Amino acid sequence: MAKPYYEDANLAVLRQAGIGKRVLDVGCGRGRLGAELKRRGNTVHGIEMDPDAAAVAATRLDLVHRGDATDFARLPPEIRSGGYDAIVLADVLEHIPDSLGFLRKVCELLRPEGRAIVSLPNVAVWPVRLSLALGDFTYADSGILDRTHLRFFTRATANRLLADAGLRVVASDLNPCIVRAALPAIKAVLNGHGGAGAPSDPAAIIDSPAYRAYARWIEPVEAAIARLRPELLAFQIVLVGVRAA
């Protein structure tokens, strides 16, 4: 049985995206994040390489281009013309060989006052530090040590990436890694390892009553605690950048 494509809406990105904006979601996946952005009154375009994910995203977003986001010559005119209020790069740059060059290029699609909202996995988070202390650095199918990651970032190097791309960081946020440390076990159960009949719906986690309760009541407290030591407790670092003057 194929592994489920678990969806995530990246709560920190949603907090930073605003409403009534024209947004480009680069690497939009199945469009779950973009759909949440649309519910908040935004017009959302997406770029996604995976054909199955792009097909689902096309039912959720205003426009989806199926293709390589780094191939600017093949972008449709509606995207290539730019003028976006915000460009979302949620867990994308770590998959790109020249992440700095791509970030510089894609930001050309922003309006002069537009914002780049960048989410990056934090390789210095405490579970990875603990594993390293025990002599282990094992790649996984997803998460911070996803085997498709080509680059790794800490909070400091994420800030440096935006600065090197000519962006001034005007806001920062995070998705915490306290409760989330148990997510691999939760996924194992939902993937069928926890018994017969376990769900394999891509939205099994995020649409569950338990997740909705977590997002409403627990995540805000967890995020507040993580902000005390973001370099240690952040699963994802979210930075908002504008063009430096």
Descriptive terms for the model:
245 residues, alpha/beta, Rossmann fold, 7 strands, 35% helix
Please provide a brief summary of the model.
By secondary structure, this protein is an alpha/beta fold.
Radius of gyration: 18 Å
Q: Give the fraction of residues assigned to helices.
A: 25-40%
Counting DSSP H or I runs of 4 or more residues, the number of helices is 10
CATH class call: Alpha Beta
Mean pLDDT: 89
Report the major sheet.
7 strands, mixed
Please provide a written account of the structure.
The protein has a single domain, classed as Rossmann fold (3-Layer(aba) Sandwich), CATH 3.40.50. The protein has ten helices and seven strands. Helix content is 35%, strand content 22%. The N terminus is likely disordered.
Task: Summarize the SSE layout with pairings.
Blueprint: H1 11-17, E1 22-26, H2 32-39, E2 43-48, H3 51-57, E3 63-66, H4 77-80, E4 84-90, H5 99-106, E5 110-121, H6 126-133, H7 155-164, E6 167-176, H8 183-193, H9 209-226, H10 230-233, E7 234-243
Parallel strand pairs: 1-2, 1-4, 2-3, 4-5
Antiparallel strand pairs: 5-7, 6-7
